[in-house]
Design a protein that fits this description.
single chain, mainly alpha, Growth Hormone, Chain: A
Length: about 375
């Protein structure tokens, strides 16, 4: 999953303009969260009617099909674009001029004679497993390249707003069996059906945030004298507060004999929050770090998975020992802490981007100067 989560975002940065990335990120988050939500639903019926071992076979089949589809229908998007003036299309700046001007400039630059674009590869050529190398940096320096981004304030913001929010949300399917068994005496298939609430939240967020994130940033840029700023994306990260309401509402509802539909609605709110704010934070990362966003996401996913791995050892025991209400309030508090990170990021975002721009050597380990776009 780590390669998928990192490479997809990098591909979006390579092939879409700044005002097109938001809706594409929403579609990507919809796909990931739909799989996370539908997986337990289908798996519950497999456990109840077949066996838990068969569940792994049902996972292996679509994964095998995905490998075939990726091989035949997902071409390589990275290539070295050489220019006569020493600049690359990947190093464009969007926050110092209007969106319309930015798009026009990039369209002109793509058709300019200064660019020496490689010839279009045929379909059989795209199927080659080996396409050559895109850098002269040795493997050890490539391994070290993501770690300097720990010095970037944007990394810590994305870690909290996207990575940790994913961790809190991933804990719900892990401990939902315990919660719904204790509170409502649900069977395995009934517990699986509760994930439909999360799916509803995901679909609603996709329909709303898909056009809203791109149209909203364009609208904000027009009212900012035609100047686009990546911090516009952070407005949509504020939807993380819906996740706080989801966890806290479920916690309070357990003490007031809340029916199961209320708990499912709270799960829908948490999933809605993840799609809206998660896609916005990733788009902000793409706007800020550009082609280096791949390295940031690699470290974010690694640290997030380590945190989630550690939580799996005690999360169900926490629900049993501390109770449903206290456990959900803890998740609500964690979600609120991550949401508050968006406030200093919005206030000091320009300074953070200025720091990144003024100290490029801090974030380039063994940079050979070859653009990879």
């Amino acid at each position: 999953m780590s390669a998928l989560q990192s490479l997809v975002a990098s591909t979006l940065e390579q092939i879409y303009f700044v005002h097109e990335r938001g809706s594409r990120n929403v579609i990507w988050h919809f796909s990931i969260l739909s799989g996370i939500t539908l997986g337990p639903l289908l798996y519950s019926y497999v456990i109840q009617n077949l066996s838990w071992q068969m569940g792994f076979w049902f996972v292996s089949i679509p994964l095998g099909l995905a490998v075939i589809l990726v091989f035949f229908f997902v071409p390589e998007t990275t290539f070295i674009r050489e220019t006569n003036n020493g600049l690359s299309e990947g190093h464009r700046s969007s926050d110092s001029k209007g969106i319309d001007n930015c798009v026009n400039d990039e369209e002109k630059s793509s058709s300019s004679s200064n660019h020496v674009s490689p010839s279009r590869a045929s379909y059989p050529q795209q199927l080659k497993i080996w396409h050559g190398t895109f850098t002269n940096v040795n493997l050890f320096k490539l391994f070290l390249r993501p770690f300097p981004f720990l010095l970037s304030p944007v990394f810590w913001f994305v870690f909290l707003a996207y990575g940790m929010q994913t961790a809190w949300l991933s804990l719900l399917p892990i401990c939902s069996s315990t919660i719904f068994t204790i509170e409502y005496n649900f069977t395995a298939s009934q517990i699986g059906l509760t994930n439909l609430g999360g799916l509803v939240g995901i679909v609603l967020a996709t329909l709303i945030s898909g056009p809203l994130t791109d149209w909203g940033t364009i609208w904000l840029a027009k009212y900012n004298k035609g100047i686009y700023e990546p911090e516009f994306r952070i407005w949509f990260v504020s939807t993380m507060v819906l996740g706080v309401f989801g966890y806290a509402g479920w916690a309070v509802g357990t003490t007031h004999n809340m029916p199961w539909i209320g708990a499912v609605a709270c799960m829908a709110m948490a999933n809605f929050s993840m799609v809206m704010s998660g896609s916005a934070s990733i788009t902000y990362l793409l706007d800020t770090h550009g082609p280096h966003a791949l390295h940031v996401l690699a470290v974010v996913n690694f640290t997030k998975n380590m945190v989630l791995y550690g939580f799996t050892f005690f999360v169900n025991g926490m629900v049993e020992s501390r109770g449903v209400k206290t456990s959900l309030l803890i998740l609500a508090g964690c979600q609120a802490f991550c949401w508050l990170a968006s406030i200093p990021m919005y206030v000091f975002g320009k300074r953070a981007r200025s720091f990144i721009a003024r100290h490029p050597s801090l974030f380039t380990v063994g940079d050979d100067g070859v653009p990879s776009h």
